[in-house]
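Shape matters. As here.
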Amino acid sequence: MQGDGISPMTARVFDSHEPTLVLDGESLEVVAVNPPLANLVGRPLAELLGQVPDFLRAEDSGARHWERTRQASLVKPNGAVQAVEVTCLYVEKGPPRRVVLRLTALDANGTPNNAPLHNRHQALHRAHRELLSAYNRLELLNDELENKNRQLQEVYRRLSYASKMAAVGELTAGATHGINNPLAAAVSAVRTLDRLCQQCPDELREQMMATCRRADRALERIERIVADLRRLAQAGTRRGDLKVVDLGQEIRLALELISHKLEDIDLKLALPEGLTVRVCPDEFNQVIMNLADNAAAAMDGHGHLTIRALLEGGKLRLEIEDDGPGVPPDMTQRIFEPFFSTKEPGRGTGIGLAVARGIIEGYAGTLYLEQEHGPGCKFVIELPAEVVRERPSENTGG
């Protein structure tokens, strides 16, 4: 090979035994040639360098036309004419711009004289296409395998959660039964003491009544926790009477019950009119109150809370979204676990979300956290078409 100013990649092309030359993209002068080309042309290498390839005859000679395969006539020094096929291997965009050409001699029938090599070249092209097709199929299979693996992990997560909930259910069922009787006795005793306080001397009456009120509030909290534990033990089953109720009215009623916690929160409701659901009202209200209360606590009583309902293919999608700090990434997989809480000790029992999910699953629905970029938290309730009614209808018992 002779010639300067060519790239290492082009230099490697000259290692082949095919006649190859490199033209300057602007002047069309020969920059480099290899010995097979000099033999084909019948001229010394040094004589070819720096010259426009006048030994090739074609209808056009612009560099842009050399960038496609075509036939030409090669004129040898003795005047003999050889039909050749000119193939542009590639173009180096530069600078400087280079056009790499390969010449193949043709016989009288226009067939390449190097037919065996040409056939091998075509076979390599076919093998390359087959390999590329196999690679693409492998990529598709890999994507499908990853998708199946994600589905399997989700099934495993749900089975693990169901197993854990079953164990917790057995534990809480026994615990609530054991707590309920002494709790009822304690509540009765406190209320009896409250009545007896009326007979105490004036200087003790107020103090005794205040003590009874504190004890009564504490016992009421214990009663709520026991009720939540009982619901947790029944997670995933329907409880109470099912009724067809107006979705918007039930959500507004639930928010009114905790309105004192939402006083400084910008509340926005986007609820379609006339949309009804067939649920147990008390339990459904409890789910809404729990999610709204959690949002208010996360925002420390100040922020924006949005509740919107969407119908998608007859199914209901209910979103409860706040602009609080959100759930830390390392806790997103645990927030529905019983007794796990992101709140400070003493401010939460860790039962609410587990109970809420159990209630929604009792209607063949789902409750999950939808993670998004940025601050905030969005819980999504999805209910099947069987639970949703687009028009109000007469209440029916469960």
